[in-house]
Amino acid sequence: MTATHTPRAHTARRQWAQGLTVFAAVMLMIAGLLDIFRGIMGIAEDDVFVATRNYVFEFDLTGWGWIHVILGAVAVIVSLGLFQAAMWARVIGVGIAGLIIIANFLDLPYYPVWSIVMIAMSGFIIWALCVARQDVTADSFEQPPRNV
Question: Which residues does the UniProt record annotate as the domain DUF7144 (predicted)?
Answer without folding.
Answer: 21-133
